[in-house]
Amino acid sequence: MFEMAADYFTSHSKYELIGGYFSPVSDYYQKEGLAPAHHRVKMCELATETSSTWLMVDSWEALQPSYQRTAVVLDHFDDELNGNLGGMLLPDGSRRKIQILLLAGGDLIESMGRKDVWASEDLHHILGNFGCMVIERTGTDVSEFLLSHDILYEHKDNIHVVKQVIYNDISSTKVRLFVKRKMSIKYLVPDAVMRYIFDNALYSTKLTRKRDYVTFAFD
Fold first, then answer.
1. How deeply is 176 buried, as exposed, middle or buried, from its count of CB atoms within 10 A (0-12, 13-18, 19+)?
2. What is this structure's pTM?
């Protein structure tokens, strides 16, 4: 997804790509199947440390003692990059504010149409103050969905749709399932990540929910 987003910036000279961040969700997200946060942070670090010059990992969200909404996480990046660092340092010594965008798949953007998942004020904050890059999955039409959703249509100029040129349906859910079923994940994830998964017996134990491994850790 990140590389497809980078290609988008290459063909749109209005923008200059500075960097990208993986931000693993907290253990308190309560999604079944997730490994403990410290493992997910480490896997992201292993995946980026030798394979990319512009992708990084931020562990703030993963280490929080409670689940943080996406709007709050974007505020964190804004505080760090534009507040503490003062934005992008230009050759003439001046600084310019960094535009932060949420990178999302088509399934996430479609979930924004559900009021039981996203609060309206959060959508206005995310799309109005930041923006979103959507990797459109083959067979879906994000533009049609934007047209049918009032809040997304209001902020359509801040939503950048990237069409998937080569079909790729690899997902973390499928990788976890392959490990659980003892199927090969070689070439689906970097070798260092694959070794880490097997060395730490991830996704092959019964500790698959937040309440399981939090209880395991503190009992």
1. buried
2. 0.87
